[in-house]
Every structure is written in C-alpha cells, then in structure tokens.
Amino acid sequence: MSVLIEVEGLGKTFADSSLSLSPKRPPVRAVDDVSFSVMRGETLAVVGESGCGKSTLGRLLLNLIPPTEGRVVFDGVDITRLPKGEMRRMRQRMQMVFQDPFGSLSPRRSVSNTIAEPLVSFGLVRSRTERRERVAELLAQVGLPSAFMDRKPRQFSGGQRQRIGIARAISVDPAFVVADEPVSALDVSIQAQIINLMQDLQESKGFSFLFIAHDLAVVRHIADRVAVMYLGRIVELGTKAQVYGAPHHPYTEALLSSAPQPDPDRRSDRIILSGDVPSPTRIPSGCPFRTRCPIAQPICTEERPPLAEASAGHSVACHFAEAFPITRRRSAA
Question: Between the CA of residue 295 and those of 72, 163, 166, 299, what are the distances in Å?
Fold first, then answer.
C-alpha cells in the first residue's frame, strides 16, 4: 500500500483568547510533536484516555483547525498551507463522521437535504431529479429505505441517524474519512451494525479511515494499525497484532488491562496506575507518563523518549521498551 497522508511534527496549542477580566489561563498543549502516516485503504485507530488529544488530532488532519506547528501532507499536497479556495476543493476528498448522531444533523433539514448538501456544494448533481436519485442510492448503501429521505432527524433512532451521517460523509466519494468515536453514543447491538457497515463501505469504496475510539474491543475488530496517545503524544504505534499481542509501553499495557473481559469466569489482571493524568497545561518534564509509570527511572525526568522503532513496523516512546519488556503477553489479535 502507498502512503495517502504523511503527518510530520504536528502540534497544537490552545491559548486563552478570552477578553474577560478574569486571570488568563495557561495555554493547553493538546497535540505535541506527532508524526505518522496513513496508508491508502487502511484503518488506523487512535486510542487513549479522554482528553489525550484524539479528537483534536482528527480535526488537524482535516485542517478544520490550524496547527501550531508541523504539517499534514495529503496525497503529496501540504494542506496546512493551502489557500482557502484550494482547501475547499480538497475537502471533497476528506470527510468526517461525528460522534454525536443527534447533534451532527440539523433538526430543520430533511434527510434528503442533509445528504445532498455536499453533492450540491461540489457540483456533483445538476438537477433535483438527479439529486434525489443519488440520495436514494446513498440511503440504500447505508441500509435505509429511500422512503425516509423526506423525514426530519427527530423521526430516527440514534443508529439510523448515524447511518445518515455516514451517507453524507461518503456522498462525495472521499479518499479519507475521520470517524470520531462514531459508535460511543449508541447501544452495543447497534454499535456492531454500524461498525460492520463502515467496514463494508470501506472495502467497496477503498477509502482510508482514521478511527478515533476509547473502546478497545471495537478497535480490535476494525483496525489495521493502532496508535496509542497520552497527553497529546503517540507513545506506541504498530499493527493490531503488535499492540494487542505484545505491547511495549507501560501505558499501553495498563490501557489494555482495563478492557472488560467477555468471559465473567476469566480472571482479570487489571493494572491500576497511580496518580492522576497531569494537566495538559503543565505537562511533566521528560517523559509525560513518568508520574504514573511503574518502571520510571531518573532519565525519564530528564529526557523525553522519542517515538522509535522497537521492531519492524512497531514504534514505542519509552526509554526502557527493551530493557524492561512487558512480561504479560496477550494472544495475537
């Protein structure tokens, strides 16, 4: 597979722009020196605790918010420096599925108008008849009857609304889709339907996915590769089998141990990390994870470990990824 997106040294700091008389808050370092690639047709999942920067990263990749530093190269074009007009044309090739199926659809617009909006915006349909035919086709692709196209979002369940959101995202045949926790607001039975739908669409249309999630079971089912984030940085990146079967970072191991076991009789070996997640306004010196790490050493306070390759295709940001191997290995994914 060839590279579709190359991310180099990407960072985002949110400064307090409030005009109020209250004291200014310190800047928030949401994404910090992130580099990776997304291959054509693959699903790269990004996991981590709430507030680690996953959603901000997804928006940076679509250039919905400007980065503080670094760049995103999409199919050979640095989109972080594109003029607005050129960026607008590029958006046909990159779309997003939002987390909230209730808030992401306008309550005043019909399903037909919602799905057809990108088609009209990019000039892909020329008449009302062509527009309705295309909307009916897209509804069929996401498992909804064409008779629904004149209804409003309030007439649908959460799972149906998310199908409508997916239909809107794929309507312009994008090459890249960011799915920001697309099933977290849905019931478990509906989650499986949406995940299977997304996989089927990806297989038939060939687009790449950045799949943002905190549910490790869902990620294990859908991902090709997995990136683990902590305090705005990627601390481990590898194939699904590498990350789930042989984690090299202590945070990854703790995160995997917290996943619920489907078998109630199976003994849980959950790792409880000490302390709280540091504030992104006061990130610790050296390794950001050192304040909670069970194997931290003095060097961890002084030097920030780079994301370096531990084995072929498997990168880890830990000074002791090899000297202190994780003893509990999990079965390959």
Answer: 34, 44, 43, 11
Name the band, by pLDDT with cuts 50, 70 and 90, for residue 140: very high
Distant-in-sequence contacts of 296-303, Cβ < 8 A, 24+ apart: none
What is the DSSP code string of 170-236?
A: HTT--SEEEEESTTTTS-HHHHHHHHHHHHHHHHHH--EEEEE-S-HHHHHHH-SEEEEEETTEEEE
* Surface-to-core class of residue 37, CB atoms within 10 Å of its CB (0-12 exposed, 13-18 middle, 19+ buried): middle
pLDDT in tens, 271-303: 878 878 888 889 999 999 999 998 899 999 999
Measured CA to CA, the distance from residue 331 to residue 206 in angstroms comes to: 29
pLDDT at 260 over 80: no
Residue 228 near residue 235, CB atoms below 8 Å? yes
**Cα(214)–Cα(185) distance, rounded to whole angstroms?**
12
Residue 8 CB: number of other CB atoms within 10 A? 16
Strand partners, 45: 211, 226
Residue 80 and residue 90 in contact, taking contact as beta carbons nearer than 8 Å: no
Report CA 303 to chain centroid distance, whole Å.
Answer: 28
Tokens of 294: 């069970």
Q: What pairing do the DSSP bridges indicate for beta strands 176-180 and 94-97?
A: parallel
CA 187, chain centre distance (Å): 20
- Give the pairing type, strands 314-316 and 308-311: antiparallel
Buried b / exposed e across 218-235, counting CB within 10 Å, b at 16+?
Answer: bbbbbbbbbbbbbbbbbb
d(CA 90, CA 74): 9
Contacts of residue 49, defined as CB under 8 A and 6 or more positions apart, other chains included, come to: 214, 230, 255, 277
Residue 265's Cβ-count burial label (10 Å; 0-12, 13-18, 19+) is exposed
